[in-house]
Amino acid sequence: MTTPQYDLSHTLPPHTLTRLAREWLAEDTPNFDPAGLCVGSHEVEAKLLCKTPCSVLAGRPFFTAVFTELSCTVEWAHIEGAQLGPDAVAQTAVVRGPARCVLLGERPALNCLARASGIATRCSQLQSIAREAGWHGHVAGTRKTTPGFRLVEKYAMLVGGVSMHRQDLSGMVMLKDNHIWASGSITQAVRNARSVCGFSSKIEVECGSREEGSEAATAGADIVMLDNFKPQELHAAAQLLKEEFPSVLIEASGGVTPDSLPQYLSPHVDIISLGCITQGCPVVDFSLKVQKPVAFPIIFQSQ
C-alpha cells in the first residue's frame, strides 16, 4: 500500500469533526454513565491494537476527534494510509486521559476506525488489482453508504486510493432507469436535467444497452454508465461507444466484485464502480486496552 501523497485530513472541516464526535458520543451515552463511577477520573494510558494483519489504517481524524471532545490525547504510531502488520497484533496508537473519559470514547472511536480501515483496505486491494493488470481508469465507490456515516466511508475511499464518485445527489446528475421512465425518454431526461444543472455539473445516464448509451451521448450526457453488462458485452459496447463518442466517459457498474473485477477491465472503460466497497465490507479488528498500573514491591528496611 502506498500511503496518500497528501494529508487527507485537511479535507475534513474541523467543525464537522467536532459535530460528528459530539453526535456519536451523545448517541452512545445519552444520560448517565454508571460504569464511570467504577473507574473515576485518574489518568490512564490505553494502547490501541490492530488485530487484523495487513490492514490499511484509515479514520485517524475521527478517532482523535472523539477523544479530543473528552479531554484525552492520542499519540499515533502510524500515519494515515499505512499498512499495519504483518504481525498478528500491531500497536497503532496510545490514548491518554481520565479513565472514565477514555472508556466513554472507546466504542464510538473504535467503530469509526474499524469501519473506515476496512473500507480503505478493500479499496487498496481493488486498486492493486487494477494497477497490476495495467488498467489506468478509476475504481470508484457508490452512494450505497451507511445513513449518517457517509462522510467517514467516503473519506476512507480516498485513503484507500479510489474515487469517491459523487458524494451525494447534489454532486452530479445521475439519471437512472426510474428517472428515464418518469421523463419518457433518455433524451428528454437529459434535456430536463441540463436545463437546471447548467454547465457546472456533469450528467451521467444509466444505460442497459449500447443503443441507450448512444442516445444518452447524443443527447449530451457526459458519462454513460453501462449497467449490469456481462464482461464481453461490456467490452464490445464500450469500444463502439468510444469510437462514436471519444470524449464521453464510460462507466461500468452492477455486479462487479473483487473477484470479478479483472474481467471488467478494458481500455475503453474509464470508471468501474462497486457497491461492495461499502456494502458487506469486512471491518478491521481494533481494541483499546487500558494498561494496568505497575505495582512496585514494598521493600522493608531493618532499623
Task: Describe the 3D structure.
With 303 residues, this protein is α/β, with parallel strands linked by helices. The chain has two domains: 8-125 and 283-290, Alpha-Beta Complex (Aldehyde Oxidoreductase, domain 3), CATH 3.90.1170; 132-277, Aldolase class I (TIM Barrel). It contains ten helices and twelve strands. The protein has helices spanning 14-28, 34-39, 60-69, 99-132, 150-160, 177-183, 186-197, 210-219, 231-244, 261-264; strands spanning 43-50, 55-56, 73-76, 83-84, 90-98, 138-140, 173-175, 203-207, 223-227, 249-253, 271-273, 286-290. A six-stranded parallel sheet has the order 6-11-10-9-8-7. Helix 7 (186-197) runs parallel beside helix 8. It starts with 13 loop residues before the first helix and ends in a 13-residue tail after the last strand. The relative contact order is 0.14. The model has no long low-confidence stretch (mean pLDDT 94).
Specify the overall morphology: elongated
- Helix content, binned percent: 40-55%
**Total domains:** 2
Structural class: alpha/beta
- Per DSSP, the total helix count is 10
Unreliable stretches (pLDDT < 50, length at least 5) are none
Mean pLDDT over all positions = 94
Distance N to C terminus: 64 Å
Secondary-structure element sequence? HHEEHEEEHEHEHHEHEHEHEE
The CATH architecture of the largest domain can be named as Alpha-Beta Barrel
Describe the sheet with the most strands.
6 strands, parallel
Largest beta sheet: strand ordering: 6-11-10-9-8-7
> Could you tell me the radius of gyration in angstroms?
24 Å
CATH homolog superfamily of the largest domain? Aldolase class I
CATH class value of the largest domain: Alpha Beta
- Relative strand content: 15-25%
Annotated CATH topology of the largest domain:
TIM Barrel
Function: Involved in the catabolism of quinolinic acid (QA).
Enzyme class: transferase
Family: Belongs to the NadC/ModD family.
Protein name: Nicotinate-nucleotide pyrophosphorylase [carboxylating]
